[in-house]
Amino acid sequence: MSIKYSAEEIATRIKAVDPTFRFPTKEQIPIIQSELAPSVVIAGAGSGKTETMSQRVLFLVANSLIKPDQLLGLTFTRKSAGELSKRIKYRLRQLKSAKLLPENLDESELTVSTYHSYAGKVLADHAIRIGLDADADPIGEAAAWQIAFEEVSRFAGNDLPINGSPKSVVAEVMDLSTALAENDRTAAEIIEYTHKLLNHISNFSDRQTIPVLEFKEELNQRLAILPIVAAFDERRREHGLLTFNDHMSIAARLVKESKDKHNDDIGVIERSKYKVVLLDEYQDTSFNQIKFLSNLFGNNHPVTAVGDPNQAIYGWRSASSETLDTFAQSFNSKATRYTLLTTWRNDKSILDLANVMIDSISTQENVDKLSARSNAQIGEVGCGIYETQAQEANAIAEYFSKYWFDKNRQASPVNEKTTFAVLVRNRSQIDQIQSALLDLGIPTDIPGVGGLIHTPEISDIVALLRSLTMPDSGTALMRLLTGPHIALGAKDLMALGAFTKSFAKSNEYSRGKQLKQALEENIKVIETADEFASGSIIESLEQLLTLTPSEFSNYHSTPKFSSEGLERLRRFSLALRSLRRSLTGSITEAINEAEQFLSLDSEVLVRDGWQNGRRNLDRFLDEAARFEKNGGTLISFLQWLKVAEEAEGGLKPAEVDVRSDAVQILTIHAAKGAEWDYVAIPGLADRNFPSIGKKSDNWISNAGSIPVTLRGDFEQLPAINFEKISDNKNLKKALEGFDDQWKARKLTEERRLAYVAITRAKQGLLCTTSHFRSGNKPVDPSQLFEIFATATKDIEGASIISETDVPDGINPLKENPRTASWPSPNHNIERLRKVADLTNQSSIMKIEEQLSTTNNDEQKSILFDMQAIINEIKGKEKYLKVVLPTRLSVSTLLYLAKEPQELALRIRRPMPNHIDKYARRGTEFHLWLENHFNHPSLISMDELFNQSLQAVDLQSDAPLEKLQSSWLASEWAAKTPADIEFGFETMIDGILIRGRIDAVYKLGNDKYEVVDWKTGKVKSGDDLETAAIQLAMYRLAYSKLKSVPIENISAAFHYVADNQTVRPADIMNQEQLKALISKVPIEI
């Protein structure tokens, strides 16, 4: 390799044009000047790998070893790729200024991207050979979740032996799909392996213990889910809805096929384009990524893999910590190993603690340790044990406050202010810590979707949307009732609860009755039991509006509503009803409606100012827009948010932009790659951090994981040799042994996660826990906390700042809950109230007069804005006109006659219909009757979806057995119908009416009678007159379709339970039916 300029000479020339440029160190120079050959760089946290890689590129370009467009740099996030690209381009421009490169050299052709983006590009260039359209952008995790949810819902009606809620099954489907893609496996391969394994262990004759039975249960669960996974993957492939993992998997397979069958033609093309390849964060690469890259750039192509084995924290997605050690083997290359261990980020005390963690992670005697830069300060590390989580949160807030409000910091420009972060292992800790910081006047920021949901304004919007669209979301409604919008007091909340229970006990549509029915009829219950048992407070709100005073008094329990509380609830219920009408647009429109309804735009501006007030709202709208782009609905968006809210490390971490205007609170996984001046790591309690997780990714206990022996990195993982096991006793022993090995491996990964958290801090680090967590009993500090606390004895600048003894008794927060005034006082709101009072006391302004008298442009602008706002409010108060759809069922005609306003609301805002046991019993009777006549069962979709419209007709239905015996005793049992379940579609005044006639009997020559079976009470008066519209429609339809004069067709209701036939007089003719339909458009 011919060298014209050394790394030091290049640095000297750049230093002349940029005095801030730092000369490369003795560690960096060998890496910068290394041969064009494979190499591995072990780069510790904060060791300046980005600068080292950029100087490596400068060296290669300055010495004409490569051109900028012959470099390929790959990393994991767009942010990291952007930073590396920006740094290299900046340094290349400096080389031009230093006259080491020609002015016409184009540095913009540099290729630095993410691993997935590069795989997608290769796939797009060559996918035609496998008949795949790879031009479409990959779908995100939210879009994939939508499809998985739809597939699980589609399979739910099948007889698959699946355990768990739909949400947990969706998670397992997505996990299995990802695992198949990451490891280049198919569902068929897993099914075949599992059947063989089950056949083998089912032959064991000795007693089965619980671990063996649970293992078999997981195997069968995986078998049940795999058909859904196959359908999920096939649907996405058919419609071009590929994920990033799909792109990588298909690209890896394509490149391997090219190498094996087509003379490595893809590899030849890519290697000719890129003479040098840089692989950043290599420790996080998965099996498929390594397979893809090694088949392209193996066999001693100049590839530099850079990474830190101590930051390998993605083992659950097939990213093994051993990848750096096996690089040479994977790429079939002779690789030189370099180390980059001087950290430019951390002060000494933090660095010393990081080295303690390296010792606890490594099993080697001579492990690579981090070393401090020459000008590093001592820094500080504090460890504290507190009594409760609340005290722990307050301690973190107080620790930050002394640096946040430091006078020097306050006087510094934004880009020079110190930064702060709280890195949590469990999102459940976020609320208390955020509240403690806000109490001290310190703003907070929670990056990512999961964190965003925890902010007050977004929580309110989500609660409102769930209350509007999910009738069983009582817990969401409670947030609104107790919040500032309604501010319902404790007594009225108790009254609402008592009313709900009272109404539920006596009303057949209640949640509790549905639960009882579900249990009696063995119907799988998906909703939460607490909402079933107590009734639905959302239903109760509606009842507060619709019940008459006498009806309401029947359900009035103790305590009673206050007059003000009842008035607020009724006003709120009316407002909700109005808001439901407007939720007909997109997800983002629904969010905007909710925001305006809750007056959040004003509230957040008052709270945080015009610069930051809308920050969370706008971010939430961006997330909704992305979800909507992939065809998502409001319901599926709300379900997805629930998943995002509960996920800890499973969702793709957000790319974090470090900010100095707020304390950022985020998970440790999301913090990787970022750095802050001051960092707190809370929750270092047993089973919390290190985390045992809600569900392990251990394949023997998690149906969402694939067997270890089918993973691409199986050689680096513990395994069970089932062929050597011949009985259940040894199978139990092997399963328990594997479980222990897997737990040990996960514990090591948790320690690496702790190392990542520690090395995010530059100047100060606070590590905390509390004796009492969320339960009653005290919880021991975790192994990690004990390691940290012990290390403080030998680390300069480290100390134990709080060491509370384990208290007696139960959790003080459980025994003596914290009390406060409700709602809590808000000084900003008080000021606003004063302004509002002054406004109310002022005289009414006539905007037109003011406009005519002022010449001030600013005043005119304000007046015009005021007029526009007033006009907008007036516009919202106008009635809406609802037009009938072009297709109607006969049931809808009945609704149109009896309750046109309610029908208009249903058309304006369709909601899921309730189908109760009476509707089901009526359907069962019709099915029985069809079988009696040996007629095939034909229940129309219109009947199923309009049964709730007929609910009033179904009250007091008799049991099925009584209906059967009564009908058999009637005059109709001896007659033979001419038609049964006669379906029809006919036009009236441009509207298509569709329905199904129960039975038609021939009375004589060209004379007929249509009969509708009724399983409810006999009707009379106005009720009979309305119901007769149904018979009028049946007569007209049969007349048209059979060409029978309408006067030759009579019509009757037969009330089965009472064995009474009623033939209404004055049935509507065609003109009268047209007049009924002409009632619309309806104003609401």
From TrEMBL:
SUPFAM superfamilies: P-loop containing nucleoside triphosphate hydrolases, Restriction endonuclease-like. InterPro entries: DExx_box_DNA_helicase_dom_sf (IPR013986), DNA_helicase_UvrD-like_C (IPR014017), DNA_helicase_UvrD/REP (IPR000212), P-loop_NTPase (IPR027417), PDDEXK-like_dom_sf (IPR011604), PDDEXK_AddAB-type (IPR038726), Restrct_endonuc-II-like (IPR011335), UvrD-like_ATP-bd (IPR014016). Coiled coil: none annotated. Keywords: ATP-binding, DNA damage, DNA repair, DNA-binding, Exonuclease, Helicase, Hydrolase, Isomerase, Nuclease, Nucleotide-binding. The keyword Cytoplasm does not apply. The keyword DNA damage applies. It is an enzyme of class 5 (isomerase). GO terms for biological process: recombinational repair. It catalyses: Couples ATP hydrolysis with the unwinding of duplex DNA by translocating in the 3'-5' direction; ATP + H2O = ADP + phosphate + H(+). Residues 348-673 form the UvrD-like helicase C-terminal domain. GO terms for cellular component: cytosol; DNA helicase complex. GO terms for molecular function: 3'-5' DNA helicase activity; ATP binding; DNA binding; exonuclease activity. Residues 22-347 form the UvrD-like helicase ATP-binding domain. It holds the Pfam family UvrD_C. Its EC number is 5.6.2.4. Belongs to the helicase family. UvrD subfamily. This is DNA 3'-5' helicase. It comes from freshwater metagenome.
